[in-house]
Specification:
Elements: H1 2-32, H2 41-46, E1 54-55, E2 61-68, E3 72-78, E4 85-91, E5 97-104, E6 108-116, E7 122-126, H3 136-145, E8 166-171, E9 176-186, E10 200-208, E11 214-217
Antiparallel strand pairs: 1-2, 2-3, 3-4, 4-5, 5-6, 6-7, 8-9, 9-10, 10-11
């Protein structure tokens, strides 16, 4: 009887040891598994396969989405007000994310850009390092002073037809912003009698990224 107890006790020790190893191996697999964002097929369906816009529960607008089994997918998200950012993503044909970029004014990358290989390894680029003393937030304040947008409530970003009211383009080499107000001034140019004349013309400014000096471009 004593021998049976000893054998049973040894069996329990061996069983616990195996379970511990299995748990450890399982944990290693979980730790090593990359959590990669996947293209959201359900959202794609809700947009009528890219033909309609869709607003998520948190207020994020899906303004562009598409997927091709050979080329992969694209996604453009507009966060809810008062944000003035746009998030652009691309996906591999297997649905894994390929890149993520955050823009302000449609053309200027800000915050952190992420670029993924097909195995989910990511390379990150800190976009804000390229800006000098004058930041994109200062450009938004300038647009607010021109009564184009309201920073506190996020209004004015789009016109009544859903088109952007402004563009921001940053030249890293020159350290300057080119700021375009799409409908900045009334069109007083002579009409050439061809087609219907536009009511407004763009107003374009150059803002020095070091000093903040602003100059209107003719």
């Amino acid at each position: 009887m004593k021998l049976i107890k000893i054998v049973f006790f040894c069996f329990l020790i061996l069983l616990n040891s195996c379970n511990g190893q299995n748990k450890e191996n399982s944990d290693e697999k979980i730790d090593n598994k990359k959590m990669v964002e996947k293209f959201d097929i359900e959202i794609y369906k809700k947009t009528n396969y890219g033909f309609d816009n869709y607003t998520k529960e948190d207020g994020t607008l899906i303004s562009m989405i598409d997927f091709d089994s050979l080329k992969g997918g694209v996604l453009k998200e507009v966060p809810p007000k008062p944000s003035f950012k746009t998030i652009y993503k691309e996906f591999y044909p297997n649905g894994n994310i390929k890149k993520k970029e955050i823009f302000i004014g449609e053309r200027t990358k800000i915050d952190t850009s992420e670029y993924y290989d097909q195995d989910g390894n990511v390379e990150k680029v800190e976009e804000n390092k390229k800006f000098g003393k004058v930041k994109p937030e200062d450009v938004l304040k300038f647009l607010e002073s021109k009564k184009i947008i309201n920073i506190s409530n996020g209004s004015g970003r789009y016109d009544k037809d859903g088109r952007p009211t402004f563009e921001i383009q940053f030249d890293e080499n020159k350290q300057e912003y080119i700021v375009t107000i799409i409908e900045g001034k009334a069109n007083t140019e002579p009409w050439d009698d061809i087609g219907e004349p536009v009511a407004f013309l763009p107003l374009i400014y150059k803002m020095d990224g070091k000093t903040g000096k602003i100059e209107e471009l003719k």
